[in-house]
Amino acid sequence: MVICEICVKYKITLADKADKYEQNSIKTIREICMKQVTLITQKNINKMTEDNISYKVRGIIFDIYNKLGPGLYESVYEEILAYELSKANLNFTRQKALPVIWEEIKMDHGFRADIIVENKVIIEIKSVELIANIHYKQLLTYLRLSNLKLGLLINFNAEPVFIKRIVNNL
Known about the structure:
Strand content: 15-25%
Shape: globular
Oligomer: single chain
Radius of gyration: 21 Å
Number of strands: 5
Structural class: alpha+beta
Largest sheet: 5 strands, mixed
Number of helices: 6
Mean pLDDT: 84
CATH architecture of the largest domain: Alpha-Beta Complex
Strand order of the largest sheet: 1-2-3-4-5
């Protein structure tokens, strides 16, 4: 029976269909395995808690900072972070509008969260000399408006990179 490295890594067994796979090329077997891996990965991501997501995101942030250091625009860090989140198979939205609702009035142009990961964690990216109290309040407001529980306030212009967890009823 032919087994590819993906099957071994993710412990995917093809034994029940060995005869069918014997006739297929390694490429076909890899494609089948990748579909299985995608299903497994998606199931695991759906089970991720805010803490699991935060842990993964912080690892990605440290990696970006170690390679690029401080001094770039927020938009550069956001673009690279989005790319790395995509590589990590994490679902996210960028520049998500957070409406402000007051009684019957809905103001769609309220605020914009930089990145929301798995609809559970807000990432607010800064590249400033110092984090001010307003930055903490801004992220906490985003958490309240979105009814999310955890946010990460990131300052890529600090040495070392500044990461602060902000919670909303977690």
